[in-house]
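How it folds
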Amino acid sequence: MNTFVTYLIATVVSLGIFYGVYVSTLRSEPLFRFNRFYLLTSLFLTYLIPIIIFLPHSIVPALVQAVNDGIIGSINLSPVEISATANNYPSLLSLLGYIYLSGAVFFAARLLIRVLSIYRLGNNGERSDQNDLRILWSQADFPPFSFFRTMYLPLNLKDKLHLNEIIRHEQIHIESHHSFDIILTQLMQVFFWFNPFIPLIENALREIHEFEADKAVIHSGTDPVAYTRILFSQDKSAQAVLLGNNFNYSLIKRRLTMFYRKSTRFSRLKAAAVLPIAVCTVIFYAIGCNQSTKTPETTNSDSLSVSDQKVMVVKDSSGNEIGTAQIAGDVGTPPPPPPPPPPPPPSEKKKETKEDVYRVVETMPQFTGGDEARVKYISTSVKYPDDAKEKGLQGTVYVSFIVEKDGSIGDAKVIRGIGKSCDEEALRVIKGMPKWIPGTQGGKPVRVQFTMPMNFKLK
């Protein structure tokens, strides 16, 4: 969970980095196609780069730990589910889930209302085709706009002298597929509504759409002065359709500035370097976030500082620790010689190694009464801890244990847990299991190791 939250934070900051680079280096440059490519690529890379960096950190160590802990490769018994009714008040995780769903529902409803408003506008309008263009004329008072393959125009424009320029402007929007950019950003706001930079990216894309259309109209032969008058003649009091590419969407002053500005060689060189620099910055940031989720490892040292003195660990020729020696604090004072190793007692004998523990034998151990009785015993014996219910704690606890030669349970330990209370409860029940029917190998009873998953689940 901690990794997932860090990933979401990384995506917000990453998109902020991309947007900040755009505003500081590209927004004033008339490289409209590249700027549009940069912003759309930023939306994609913002969520891809952290996934590439975070996913191996989350998945690979879990698999390695599962192998080292003996979960993979050991005999896993069928899991036992322990269910309980959750407390009435939600946990913090549930509360965050409700907040996220509420935001997603709100933005999804907003998008649906906007689409339906365009649909109703089209149903109430008069349809006509002009030069392979689909135009819907409406009595409503709104700025001209396009949405995917359809152009929406108010009827009061039919007799205007500048109608051809307006149609040409909206035609550029349609041919450049600008509506796909708007829908993409709107959909991303539904799923990632908590990211404040997505609306800023959408506004920047809308500006670029208008700059592209203005420039294309001017290059088609329209007089720039006449086109400027058309911009000023548009009714600012009409309400714009938020999903459409409106003719007078962005600030007129910026539009006039941009279609008179020309790109330079320096601006093109700057654009070529901006995207790689932004990508590298986001990668380094995501790597830093990934490192912060790891638990710092402590290193062992043969020299430990104790107040003003040092203690040296003394080892024999085989590398075994045999004692400690204190080192004097003064530089000129030589350290005392290490104490000699204590002689072994004459009665001490070499410790015998533990008997082999098997995982698969000819006759496997069996819970008295069969597996169904085992599941019944576990499910009736485990009590869902109250603090786990309060926190909404759920998950699977893996307990490893050995069925001894006499059928008793030994060496029980939690190898993968979900929380102290649940782990302790699972371990208590496993240690208290009645004797099993022991396993045999070659007709002799042997020790056999098992792993039992116990699913703690709240209803």
